[in-house]
Every structure is written in C-alpha cells, then in structure tokens.
Amino acid sequence: MSKPNIHRVSVTIILMSCSLFLLTTRLWARLMLPPWMADVRELSEKAPLVFRGYVLAVIPLTSNAESGTRNQYMAKIHVDRWYRGEGPTEETLPFAYGSVRSNGHDCIDFRPETYWIVFAREENGQLQMIDDCHGALTISPLLGRDLGSSNWPAQMEADFLAGLNDQDSAARLASIQRLGGLQLPSSRDALHHVIESGNDTDSKWAVYAALRTGDVSILPRVKQLLANGDRELPESAIALQLRFVSDPAAVPDLIAILQSAPGETTQTCVVTALGQVLKDPRAVPSLAAHLSDSSPSTSYLALNGLKNITQEEECTLPREWTEQEVEPRIARCKIWWEQTGKFRDWSQN
Asked: Under CATH, to which class is 142-215 assigned?
C-alpha cells in the first residue's frame, strides 16, 4: 500500500473513533465537528476580524414557509469587544439557517439576546463569517478586565475566564470549552479549580479543556474517568483528545490508562499517542500486548508503533503492502516479541 493509502487508513481510524461519540450528532456530506471541538486559536488566526457581542435583532431577508427550508437573515450585533481588527459598536452579519441542513452548511442560528464570538472578514464592504458552521461560537455574556493591549489571546482568555463565574450552566460550560479551544497553558490553574470545585459536568469538561492546553498532570484524573468506558460525553471527547498527547512525561500515565481503560476509543487513541506521536521505547511492551487486540485498528496501530520505535523488520510492513498482509505481519511481530523483544530493556526513553 502506498503512503497516501497509509494516510487514508490513519484518517479512517480517527473517523471510526469519532463516530463513537458523534452518534447523537447529525452527519452531513461535509463532516461537522461539534462546537466544543472548535480550535479558537486557529479560527482567530484565520480571521482578520474577530469580535464578541450579543444579537440585538434578526431580520428575515427571505421567507419560505416550507418546513426546514433554508432562509436568509441579517443579524444586528452589538459589539462589546474587538479582538482582531477594528470596527463600530454595532455590526450587521448575513447568515442562512434552516432546521434541516444540507451538505454540512448553515449551522449557525443567531437568536436575539444570545452572545457570540464571531470570526469574520470583509467582502465587498459587507462583513461575512469565515465559515458558515465554524464562523461563530456561543459564549458567556460576562467580560473580563480590558487589558488594553493588542495581545488578543490574553484578552480572550480573560473574557473566557470571567465566564467561569456565569450562573447559567450552558454559558459556563461554553467558557470552559472555549478555554480548551484557546489552548493556553496559562488557563490551567483556573481549569484545575473547576476540576476540583465544579459540579460533575463542569469538572469533566474542564479535564478535557486542560488536556487541550497540553496539561498532562491531569492524566491520573483521566484514568479515573475512563475506567468505566468512553461511550458518553464528555468521556468520549477526553478519550479522543489523548491521541494528541506529545509530552514524554505523560508516557507512564498513558500506559496506565491503556492497561485499565476498557473503551475502544481510549485504547486506539492511547496507542496512537504512544506509537505515532511519542515513539517512546517505554511503550514497547504495552504496544506488543495490543498486537492481539480484538480491534483491527488498534492492532494495526500497535504494529505500526512498534515499527516506529524499534525499527524491527519483523514488525514492518512492505513499502507496497495490501490489507491481506497485515495479519501475517502482526503474527511475525508477535513471534519476534516472544523470542527476542521482551528480553530487551525498554525501561529508558
């Protein structure tokens, strides 16, 4: 199989994992990621204009009475903070929305008196969202201190941190998730406070947000949360986030999670982190154990991880390989492990 085909296998594995926690999310021709997965930093860097505010009014531009029909609207938004770019205190923003959406578009439904952060650009003198499904995210109405600087990530963080004190549970949860999407290490202390002192839902989502900032100190808490499975949110989101862990200090905790967590998403994502991201020799015994995993995707990832770390020929698929060659190669890798591999010292990074 060629390298592009290998890449497609990896993408398929990730999408298979995603499907476990997107069962309650509609899937369209364009795969839609839920708002709690939004990368606030990336969206902000793509958008020349970023602001936050609340919707004063929504004006219909088209009217079709047929159920679910996509209609055009204009939202009047009072701007209470500009993060990138400059503009007036009131903006108008066109959008389209229908209760039945097609092709993964037109997902944002502005309603009067709701609060949003908007990622926009100007086209022909008119403000437009950079994306009709990720171009705006709900937020808490609470504002932090005006830092009076051009450091937009710090100002966003201050405003999202203020939202942790919102009495409305949905707005508070959005603030936790936006801090995760901003991915700043400086948010960790506040997120740890939520983990320790917040209600059960807020605490779990704060674990997810902390993971997105690269905080591996909460992996023992992750181990506890995933001990009973990963099929429900936010456990499934936490499990999927594990595939991005890149700090070598996390290896012992990741191995402990791999040994204790029963969920397939957790297993697949930890094996991915150990064998494809970290490539740490300390993970070799755990990866070898998962050559016999009942999940084909996990056993393939274990094989690939062993190849990445050990460079062992018996664990390496040919350059041009077919699906039929995977199981025989796994069998050869198992023999290598039993006869040679397990007698080596894999305890050092």
From this structure: mainly alpha
Please report, for the chain, the start and end positions of each structural domain, with discontinuous segments joined by +: 1-31+221-342, 34-138, 142-215
Q: pLDDT value at position 100?
A: 55
Q: What is the mean pLDDT of residues 60-79?
A: 81
Q: In whole angstroms, what is the distance from residue 182 CA to residue 214 CA?
A: 11
Q: What average pLDDT does this structure show over 165-175?
A: 97
Phi and psi at 107, nearest 5°, equal: -95, -15
Q: What angle do CA 169, 175, 179 make, to 5 degrees?
A: 150
CATH class of 34-138: mainly beta
**Residue 50: φ, ψ to 5°:** -135, 125
What does the buried/exposed string (b/e) look like for 177-211 if buried means 16 or more CB atoms within 10 Å of the residue's CB? bbbbbbbbeebbebbbebbeebeeebbbbbbbbbb
pTM: 0.87
* 8 A C-beta contact, residue 49 and residue 120: yes
Among 316, 242, 308, 256, CA closest to 286: 256
DSSP 266: H
Q: What are phi and psi of 214, to 5 degrees?
A: 90, 15
Q: Does residue 309 register a pLDDT over 70?
A: yes
Region class of 144: left (phi > 0), else alpha (psi between -120 and 50), else beta: beta
Is 103:12 a contact under the CB 8 Å cutoff?
no
Q: Which are the contacts of 344, defined by CB distance < 8 A and separation ≥ 6?
A: none
Which of 97-101, 194-198, 285-289, 308-312 shows the lowest per-residue confidence on average (mean pLDDT)?
A: 97-101
Q: What is the pLDDT of residue 188?
A: 98
